[in-house]
UniProtKB/TrEMBL annotation:
Function: Troponin I is the inhibitory subunit of troponin, the thin filament regulatory complex which confers calcium-sensitivity to striated muscle actomyosin ATPase activity.
GO biological process, one term: skeletal muscle contraction
UniProt-listed InterPro entries: Troponin (IPR001978), Troponin_I (IPR050875), Troponin_sf (IPR038077)
Family: Belongs to the troponin I family.
GO cellular component terms attached to this protein's record: troponin complex
Keywords: Actin-binding, Coiled coil, Muscle protein
Listed name of the protein: Troponin I, fast skeletal muscle-like
Ranges in a coiled coil: 81-108
Keyword Coiled coil recorded: yes
Residues annotated as transmembrane: none
GO molecular function: actin binding
Family annotation (Pfam families): Troponin
Amino acid sequence: MSLWSTVALKCKPQQHTNKKQKCNNINKSLILQIAAKWLEQEKTDIVAAKEAYLAENCPEPELSSDTAALMEICKKLHQAIDKIDEERYDIEAKVQKADKEIEDLKLKVVDLVGVKKPALKKVRMSADAMLKALLGSKHTVNMDLRANLKQVKKETKEEPTEAIGDWRKNIEDKADRKKMFESA
C-alpha cells in the first residue's frame, strides 16, 4: 500500500474548515511517521549491506600461535593495503583530471556565450547626492568646486605716461641693444 493511499483512507476531506485543518494535520503526521519508518529501514539495510560486504571481502583471520603463520598474514595484509592504495591513487588522479576538464569546458562555455552586460540605466544625480549615497548621511561634503578655487585678481600694469609719450627714445634704446648682441 502506497503512502498516499494510506493517508487517503485515514482522513477524507470535510466541508468545514476546522475539519480540513484537522485532516491536514493528521495527514502530515501520518506522512512523517511513514517517512521515519522508511529511514529506519534504510539504516538497517545499509548496516546489513556493510556486514555482507565485509564478510565477503574480509574473512576472519586465522590467528594461531605460530609466528611464521602470523608473519605470513601480515605480509598478505600489507600487500592488500598497497594494492588498495595504488587503486585509490589512480582513482584520485582520474577524478582530478576530470575536474580539470570540467573547469576548462565551463570556461569555454563562458567564452562562447559571453558575459551578458546588463543594460545600464541613466541616473541623474548630482555630485552631492552621489557622495551622500556613498559616504552616508553622516559625512556632508560640499561639491561646490568654484568655492574652493583661488580667486586671482587681475593686476593691470600701469606704465608711466612718460614712457608712452616718447616713442623715438624707445626705438633708439632697442637699436643700441641690437648692436650689443651683434658685436658680441
